[in-house]
Amino acid sequence: MIRSDLLKAMLPELIATRRDLHAYPETAFEEHRTSRLVAEKLEEYGLTVHRGLAGTGVIGELRNGDGEGAIGLRADMDALDLDESSALEYRSQHPGKMHACGHDGHTAMLLGAARYLALTRDFDGTVYFLFQPAEENMAGARVMVEEGLFERFPMQAIFGLHNWPGLEAGKMGVGKGPIMACADFFDLELTGVGGHGAYPHKARDPILTAAHLITAWQTIVSRHTDPLESAVISVTQIHGGRTSNVIPETLTLSGTARAFNPEIQDLLESGMRQMAECIAAAHGLNARFNYERRYLATVNTDREVDMAIVAMLETVGEANLRTDMEPTMGAEDFGWLLSECSGAYVVIGNGIEGSHGCALHNPRYDFNDDILPVGMTYWVNLVHSLL
Ligand SMILES: [Zn+2]
Ligand SMILES: [Zn+2]
Q1: Helix (H) or strand (E) holding 16
Q2: Cβ-based burial of 276 (10 A; exposed 0-12, middle 13-18, buried ≥19)
Q3: Ligand 1 centre from 275 Cα, in Å?
Q4: Would you give the distance in Å from CA 31 to the centre of its chain?
Q5: Which of 133, 247, 359, 369 has a CA positioned 20 to 30 A from the CA of residue 352?
Q6: Distance 170 CA to ligand 2 centre (A)
Q7: In this predicted structure, what is the pLDDT of residue 1?
Q8: How do residues 255-285 score in pLDDT, each as one tens digit?
Q9: What's the number of CA atoms in the CB half-sphere (13 Å) around residue 381?
């Protein structure tokens, strides 16, 4: 059980840290100020600090007793390329950058847990506090894994959390198995023969070919994928042509593909490539198709979900816990960590009204400071129950 007097005493610093991070948002792999602030605080609390993993990543290591057990708790530190529209006194001081996903809150909650556990040392084993860069767009977790996260800091399980607008503050949720989809990104360049819009027979038209292809790709979802599986192909950009009476020589298009099941992911990639090449060839064009698997699906492991449930029950009580959170086709780079280590990713309600209920990545969103103690308590309870 967390000591409520200590938690209460730590709360003002927790709120101040969260708002300070909010005022100075930094994006992928450029979280230098944030990283320095995190490392300095961890050192001040008495943890062993490892800097420089994935550039700006910071690992705080806290050992106690002689227990062999080790777990990792992860927070993301990065912000988004977005202009904040709020009148908050701690609004973003960095034009074009904003903490619109609440990673300022995630970082503050984990710092709070590190401070509490370093002070009380009421566990037996090792806790690694992972502060990672570049969750948004650039999959910083993948870079940490590639730079030897799990070899340098061996752990039996890893845990993550995300604030959840639309779920009441004070509630938590989790689901077993796949909870977030993979996020793959593709781009295609079609090259034909440019010509006069009045003489299409003398050209090889990439625009008409793209129209066929975009429609055909949707049959991968509707005709090639088992209807009981989930898959998404979204073409989100198409660029070609500059004037009304010229058939352009080239056209580019790009977008994103999502799935939970790696076999479906394989099907999406191979099916899209085959259709791009064959449909382009059928129209007398060349296709150059790139497909990047940037985020793996986030798949919770049953045992660790059960462990997280124990800690969540203690934190918010049965009436405030949802154990049936539905998976979403959104993505999270925590999937890279779960691809190497057992673990669970849970959500914590950010509220349902105003800036707290506002969707993530919206310029009016704000992390709810009222849930700082909830997240911090969850981390502490998790350590208590596991170590
Ligand atoms: Zn986000
Ligand atoms: Zn996020």
Answers
A1: helix 4-23
A2: buried
A3: 32
A4: 16
A5: 133
A6: 19
A7: 84
A8: 999 999 999 999 999 999 999 999 999 999 9
A9: 21
H helices then E strands: how many in the chain?
Answer: 11, 18
Nearest of 99, 65, 69, 61 to residue 82 by alpha carbon = 99
99 CA distance to ligand 1 centroid (A)?
9
Q: How many residues does the chain have?
A: 387
Q: Which amino acid is at 244?
A: S
Assigned fold of 183-295: Alpha-Beta Plaits (3.30.70)
Spatial separation of the C-alpha atoms in residues 110 and 140, rounded to whole Å: 18
Q: Are the beta carbons of 265 and 295 closer than 8 angstroms?
A: no
Task: Give residue 332 CA to ligand 1 midpoint distance, Å.
Answer: 8
> What's the number of CA atoms in the CB half-sphere (13 Å) around residue 307?
24
Give residue 225's pLDDT.
97
Where exactly are the structural domains of the chain? 4-179+297-386, 183-295
Residue type, 125: G
| pLDDT at residue 330, rounded to an integer | 94
Pick the CATH number of 4-179+297-386 from 3.40.50.300, 1.10.3720.10, 3.40.630.10, 3.40.1160.10: 3.40.630.10
**Cα 210 to averaged position of ligand 1 atoms, centre (Å):** 31
Look at residues 261, 250, 383, 258 and name the one whose alpha carbon lies nearest to residue 314: 383
Distance 169 CA to ligand 1 centre (A): 19
pLDDT value of residue 65: 95
pLDDT in tens, 103-136: 999 999 999 999 999 999 999 999 999 999 999 9
Alpha carbon of 251 to ligand 1 centroid (Å): 30
Q: How far is the CA of 289 from the centre of ligand 1 (A)?
A: 27
Handedness of CA 321, 139, 220, 236 (dihedral sign): positive
Neighbours of 234 (CB within 10 A): 11
Distance 361 CA to ligand 1 centre (A): 6
Residue with tokens 């790009």: 254
Ligand 2 centroid from CA 90, angstroms: 20
